[in-house]
Amino acid sequence: MPRLVKLPWIPDERQWAAVLETAAGEPTRNRVMLALAYDAALRREELCLLRTEDIDPGRRTLRVKAENTKNRMERVVPYSAATGVLLWAYLAHRAKISRARGPLFLSESRRNYGQPVTLWTWSKVVRRIALDSGVERFSTHTTRHLCLTDLARMGWELHAISAFAGHRSTESTLRYIHLSGRDLADKLSKSMDHIHAWRVEALTRMEAAEQAAR
């Protein structure tokens, strides 16, 4: 009996725009965390456990240590130039909290000032963004799903997406390929609806012309 695979949910363009618009009002730390979570397809743990020495600004890459990953596989992943600008601004801000090397993302609350941001803190930030943007299904894992899906949409090969995601096998990666295929099916369906509407309109015009000729 075939096993049903539940495809990961991702926001559509309107929903993603709403999330980004809401996130624009967040502190620099939260914005750079969201940007890195998408750019590098990071899991929540991988993001929160990043350290200052994991960042290579010159090459715009970050190292995800094996001990912080789900599958105990280290990887080096890139981030965008726009995220690099945001990260540079955050590092300047972080220096006002602590100049010591160590955890990249630090708390600024009175209770835990200068301490590493916890998984739960990040979950609360993302949940607040989800509620404020009206995209309640948005979660800490959505950015990872969206990034990998976008890579599939851009035509990346299966093994490349798998390596980028840190998947031990390509089975998990296939979910994003399937989702990309579903997007194509939706586009095809909409195109066929348009063609069907055009044919119906053409037939209607032909019938009207025939009736007028009679």
Summarize the structure.
With 214 residues, the protein is mainly alpha-helical. It has eight helices and three strands, in the order H-H-H-E-E-E-H-H-H-H-H.
Strands side by side in the biggest sheet: 1-2-3
CATH architecture: Orthogonal Bundle
Number of β-strand runs:
3
Secondary-structure-derived class:
mainly alpha
- Stretches with pLDDT under 50, minimum 5 residues: none
Described by strand count, sense and barrel closure, the largest sheet is: 3 strands, antiparallel
Tell me the fraction of residues in β-strands, as a range.
Answer: under 5%
Helix content: 55-70%
CATH 4th-level superfamily: Intergrase catalytic core
Mean pLDDT over the full residue set: 88
Distance between the termini: 60 Å
Rounded Rg:
23 Å
CATH class: Mainly Alpha
How does this structure look, described?
- It is a single chain.
- The chain has helices at 13-23, 28-39, 44-48, 81-97, 119-133, 142-153, 158-165, 170-213; strands at 55-56, 61-64, 75-78.
- It is mostly helical and 214 residues long.
- The protein has a single domain (13-170), classed as Orthogonal Bundle (hpI Integrase, Chain A).
- A 3-stranded antiparallel beta sheet has the order 1-2-3, with no helix packed on it.
- It is elongated.
